[in-house]
Amino acid sequence: MRSAILLLVLFVLGAAPAGAQFAFAPSQVDFTGEWAPRVYNTHMDIGDYTGIPLNEEGRLRAMSWHPDQLDLPENLCRPHPIDIGLRVSVSQLRVSTELDPETRQPVGLRLHVWWQEPEQVIYLDGRPHPSPNAPHKWSGFSTGWWERNTLVYRTTHLKEAYLTRTGVPKSVKAEVTTRMHRYGNVLTMVFIIDDPAYLTAPYIRASSWIYDPSQVIPPFPCEITPDGAVVPAGKVPSFLPGQNDVVSDFATEYGLPLEATLGGEETLYPEYIKKMKTMKVAPRTTTTHYRRTQ
Asked: Which CATH architecture has domain 33-41+69-211?
């Protein structure tokens, strides 16, 4: 009789939905609702890699990128990866509770952003990350945990994309650790990006929102119109090595040493200012060149 009961229990556990095997970590802070972005520092100049710990491979690829690539027909409706999608203007944000489709029990949080409508689920039920060979998505795969009143979550399985909208690359090996904190009606996220392919150190940036219960996020229709594209299909604008004059234009426009604008881990630290004072500074000009929303 005991053996029969034991077999019945094992059968029931084995037949339980996958989501039921995890224990949901209850929210210590209520992030749900509508959040209006606080837009600041939203523009970067093409050729501005300052403060980015690029390695040689990342710098070479960034300098070969041409801003007209964004106007290719295949890129007109291409979403941003979620860590940029949460930053570009105007990134109206909605946070809701994610429910297991079978048990209807809470398993995490769902983030919805207006621009290109990316969505990210942050699982808080203890499930593991999938195999490294699992498909990569624009929103990746995220699991979170609580550190006092801060929600920390790790995102893997992101598609190859840009670190910034100035052509700095981000590989499929990149992982993003996000710290999400609410102080009153202000929501702040700090993104810590690790990419062993193109970075030698973490790249950190932050965004903030204001709680706005009256906000209504409209649909984001995007229609691919190859006939009306700025750049015709089949052409991929790019710069060959050593031929990107836009990079030097940024340095001369702001009167900066060219070496200082090319990024690198060394440029992250205050001591680099002393080194900059020994460099040759390009004469300031009034050159106008490409600017893109970050």
From this structure: Beta Barrel (2.40)
